[in-house]
């Protein structure tokens, strides 16, 4: 009798732990490798609350108490960025997602990098391998752009999504996410989401200085070469060139999985924990959503 009760007790404890694990924060955030909340409010460090890849603040950006989710950081478009130490995870991840809240002050004056990673000589366009989310791209203004490629390797080797629809809003927050699947090929796929909606690429592409059509499709038959990446993720600037972000950035998250559209929409509604909750929906509070 005692033995049977003991077994039942153990089973009860086991099941309780199982349920707790399914709903715990750790499980809910599986796949989250970095999270810069930008709630720090003071000092020269942007803490990564998920993966320990703290960022060093360069230039003179300022902390803002009223961001999208609690605090944020304000960049003036002149020399401001955060240099994080996120390197290895995106070097090798077969699937990954980068996501960010931004509020840009300008949309019609050249390329502004929101998130960037790659060869330090990369400037958002050129022969270097890099990854970025940006406002505007090369010859295009008033668009959003996602890029996982090298400008020196064109047809079939790049993910370069230029939004078909214009983006001109300078009066509010927007969420931008790039979800990459099968980054090592043979077929790499990228999906760009603006405010949780799929961004239709400018399918016609455009011609660069060499007369080659740069594909603005969202898949490629040859993966970009990440072995040339030598600089960790930056928030607000590329490796080279003065293409700094002008506006506010908040709640940067990096995932080692390809978030689906539903996941991204959950992320927008409720913060990082809700994107991958395995069972049901908890009333997760993730700061004060504006
Ligand atoms: Ca924040
Ligand atoms: Ca500045």
Q: Per CATH, which architecture of the largest domain?
A: Sandwich
* Number of helices, counting only DSSP H or I runs of 4 residues or more: 4
What is the global morphology? globular
Gyration radius (Cα, Å) is: 20 Å
Total E-strand runs: 19
Highest-level CATH class of the largest domain: Mainly Beta
Q: Biggest β-sheet, characterized?
A: 9 strands, antiparallel
How much of the residues is beta strand, in percent?
Answer: 25-35%
- The percent of residues in helical segments reads 10-25%
Distance, first to last CA: 57 Å
For this structure, the CATH topology of the largest domain is Jelly Rolls
The small molecules bound here are:
calcium ion
Q: Helix- and strand-based class?
A: alpha+beta
Instruction: Give the ordered list of helices and strands.
Output: HHEEEEEEHEEEEEEEEEEEEEH
Mean pLDDT: 82
Describe the structure.
By secondary structure, the chain is of the alpha+beta class. The protein folds into two domains: 1-30 and 273-290; 32-259, Jelly Rolls (Sandwich), CATH 2.60.120. The protein is 14% helix and 34% strand. The chain has helices at residues 2-23, 25-28, 88-92, 261-270; strands spanning 32-36, 45-46, 55-58, 62-64, 72-76, 81-83, 96-104, 112-118, 129-137, 140-150, 159-162, 174-181, 188-194, 197-198, 206-207, 213-214, 219-220, 231-235, 246-255. The radius of gyration is 20 Å and the shape is globular. The protein binds calcium ion (2 copies). One calcium ion binds at residues 59-60, 76, 78-80.
């Amino acid at each position: 009798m005692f033995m049977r009760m003991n077994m039942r007790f153990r089973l009860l404890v086991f099941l309780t732990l199982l349920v707790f694990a399914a709903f715990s924060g750790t499980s809910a955030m599986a796949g989250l490798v970095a999270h810069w909340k930008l709630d720090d409010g003071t000092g020269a460090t942007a803490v990564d609350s998920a993966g320990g890849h703290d960022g060093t603040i360069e230039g003179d950006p300022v902390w803002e108490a009223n961001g999208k989710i609690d605090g944020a950081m304000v960049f003036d478009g002149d020399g401001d960025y955060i240099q994080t130490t996120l390197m290895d995870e995106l070097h090798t991840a077969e699937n990954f997602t980068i996501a960010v809240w931004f509020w840009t002050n300008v949309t019609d004056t050249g390329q502004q990098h929101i998130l960037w990673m790659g060869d330090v000589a990369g400037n958002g366009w050129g022969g270097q391998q890099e990854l970025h989310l940006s406002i505007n791209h090369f010859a295009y203004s008033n668009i959003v752009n996602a890029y996982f490629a090298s400008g020196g390797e064109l047809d079939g080797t790049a993910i370069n999504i230029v939004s078909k629809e214009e983006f001109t809003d300078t009066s509010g927050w927007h969420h931008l996410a790039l979800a990459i699947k099968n980054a090592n090929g043979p077929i790499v796929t990228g999906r760009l989401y603006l405010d949780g909606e799929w961004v239709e690429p400018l399918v016609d592409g455009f011609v660069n200085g060499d007369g080659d059509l740069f594909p603005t499709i969202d898949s490629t038959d040859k993966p970009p070469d990440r072995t040339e990446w030598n600089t960790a993720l930056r928030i607000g600037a590329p490796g080279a060139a003065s293409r700094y972000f002008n506006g506010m950035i908040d709640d940067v998250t990096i995932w080692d999985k390809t978030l689906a559209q539903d996941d991204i929409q959950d992320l927008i509604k409720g913060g990082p924990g809700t994107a991958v909750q395995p069972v049901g929906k908890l009333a997760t509070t993730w700061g004060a959503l504006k």
